[in-house]
Fold:
Amino acid sequence: MGNSPECSPLDSHLFRALVVALRHNFCRTYDLMHGDPGYENKFKMGTPQEVESSLARTWLDDCPTPRQIVDDVMRFSDTQLAIINARGTVVPDQDHRSGRRRTGAEHSVQMHPDCAVAERATSHKHDGWIAEPVWGIVPR
Structure:
């Protein structure tokens, strides 16, 4: 328990939310080509500088939200108290990793404002395509 994510509040849940939001932003702007409206705000992952810019823009767009940060940090004192009461041994019910990091983060992603521009700019590229359950996206 002492070296687990529960002892580092942001490690426990919120960095997962940031990574999921970054992936959503990247996917939403993926089809932008040079010259498309919004291309200058495309979320890119090709170089360390592009990753840093994409991460910072995602973080600054309130992901994770201030409320999520406060909630996660407030759980920290309960975790520390449980470790003290258990005299430093494992405290299994303080292991909050039950799958909600994954499912909760993926369902709470807000669209970054730059992604809305990208979706408008690239929506015509997918006209005439349909989603097939087995084969993916195919032309009509």
